[in-house]
Write a structure and sequence with these properties.
Length: 367
């Protein structure tokens, strides 16, 4: 019997990669002998994380097209042609039974090559405003799985649209607090711990605000677990100074976000769809700082939706330098965090990864 072979294409950021890993995890639970290949780029997060998770990985030469002119845009047509040739070769050699794209520029050539070869295809779209790849390929692929019901309006007239939620890894909720404390080197169980991050690549404005107010927060008995992003890591370390730095856990990238979530009382972060899905799965109260330049300002829409349901507070990027400490102090008063946690968990769609995995295997003809 032919083995169940599946290609995942997506990456560039954790927001595109981690939903793919969540679906792959569910496929392996449903079909333990499935052979899974990830296709991405060699210099982004997927090139490191995918092999660490035990999956095969193949890079293609592709990068995004900037809306404003950059020298890199001149190479885009060449890269696109090369990426298409590489994708067609990978699809032909691996012979997948289904190809799953989770967004980002890398998924376009692979999904398109699969449709040319008659391979069933599925797109999982995280954002409320669908990415260019999803909008372009929606009519060619077999199924498009959305996170938000309101995103349907971008695909009027299509019958292949499903609202499944944003996949999250089951392993996020399956960790021991004791293991998490050991992982981060805490000798005692921390109190009032704030997890700070700006996505897998970091967020300079969030880092700048916490550089300014880290001393105030530590002085008020808050503890910080801080993912800065690789580009800003050294700047953050040097800006804090040694006495303060010794009292804060700072990392360029946290590989075990499941551990980080497990010991956090409050999360301060961007409002990307994957982050929102993880927060609601775990019932984590959040102070959301929407990225102001996201397409169609979808992060603000995500954040306001969470706030309307009592699961988060929102602070605009431009107000970080003025209202951050006061906002955090208010959130820790009374039983506010507990109530926000309950509201957050009520919004979760914990079966999204399993539902999409089932649909993918059905497309592959092995369900």
């Amino acid at each position: 019997m032919r083995p169940t072979k599946i290609i995942f294409a997506g990456g560039g950021t954790g927001g595109h990669l981690f939903p793919a890993l969540a679906i792959a995890e569910e496929i392996k639970l449903l079909k333990s002998d499935a052979e899974i290949l990830f296709v991405g780029t060699k210099n982004k997060i997927e090139a490191r994380v995918v092999p660490e998770r035990g999956y095969m990985f193949k890079p293609i030469w592709i990068s995004g097209f900037r809306r404003k002119f950059t020298p890199g845009n001149l190479l885009f047509p060449v890269k696109l042609i090369v990426a298409m040739i590489q994708a067609m070769r990978i699809v032909k050699k691996f012979r997948p039974m289904v190809v799953i794209g989770t967004g980002g520029y890398v998924s376009g050539p692979v999904l398109y090559a699969a449709t040319l070869g008659g391979v069933p295809t599925l797109i999982q779209e995280q954002n409320s405003y669908p990415g260019a790849t999803t909008r372009f390929l929606a009519k060619r692929v077999n199924e498009v799985h959305l996170t938000f019901e309101q995103s349907r309006k971008y695909f009027s007239g299509l019958g292949n649209i499903f609202v499944s939620g944003n996949p999250t890894r089951r392993s996020l909720a399956a960790v021991s607090r004791a293991d998490a404390l050991r992982y981060f080197g805490f000798s005692e169980d921390p109190r009032n711990l704030i997890l700070v991050f700006g996505g897998s690549l970091g967020a300079r404005s969030i880092n700048a605000a916490f550089i300014r107010y880290a001393g105030d927060l530590v002085g008020k008995n808050f503890q910080l677990l801080w993912q800065t992003g690789a580009e800003d890591f050294e700047n953050v370390k040097q800006s804090l100074g040694e006495p303060l730095r010794s009292r804060i856990k700072i990392y360029p990238f946290i590989d075990r976000m499941d551990y980080a979530y497990a010991i956090s009382d409050l999360v301060v972060c961007r409002a990307g769809a994957t982050t929102i899905a993880e927060l609601t799965l775990l019932g984590k109260p959040a102070l959301l700082v929407p990225y102001p330049f996201a397409a169609a300002d979808h992060q603000t829409e995500n954040a306001r939706s969470m706030a309307a349901d009592g699961a988060a507070e929102v602070i605009p990027d431009q107000e970080l330098q003025d209202g951050l400490v006061e906002k955090i102090i208010l959130m820790f008063q009374s039983d506010r965090l507990r109530r926000m946690s309950e509201s957050s968990r009520a919004l979760a769609r914990p079966d999204a990864a399993r539902d999409i995995a089932v649909r993918a295997l059905r497309l592959a003809g092995v369900s």
